[in-house]
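Milestone 3.1: sequence recovery, worked example.
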């Protein structure tokens, strides 16, 4: 929030060589497998929804308070790095609460 010009890895960071359908297939596979694994085994889909909601809220705050372009603030969500982080790092059972209320 204090540095609105700072962002994470660009969306193309891991897929710079992918063209055409591969741009959509790889994130699609990660989203499908990540959703299945988190639904079936970790039961942390509410955590994923909260993470995504808070990221969008933070982007909106940066846009309204600091004049950052909304597209630029939301752009990291389009990258494979963000998708991998969302489904496999945020929901790590060793580092996240076990209950929905927690």
């Amino acid at each position: 929030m204090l540095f609105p010009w700072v962002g994470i890895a660009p969306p193309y960071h891991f897929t710079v060589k992918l063209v055409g359908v591969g741009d959509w297939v790889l994130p699609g596979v990660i989203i499908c497998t990540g959703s299945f694994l988190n639904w079936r085994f970790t039961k942390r889909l509410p955590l994923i929804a909260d993470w995504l909601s808070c990221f969008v809220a933070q982007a909106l705050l940066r846009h309204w308070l600091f004049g950052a372009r909304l597209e630029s603030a939301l752009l990291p969500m389009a990258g494979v790095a963000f998708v991998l982080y969302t489904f496999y790092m945020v929901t790590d059972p060793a580092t996240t609460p076990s209950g929905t209320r927690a």
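The chain has a mean pLDDT of 85. The two ends are 25 Å apart (CA to CA).
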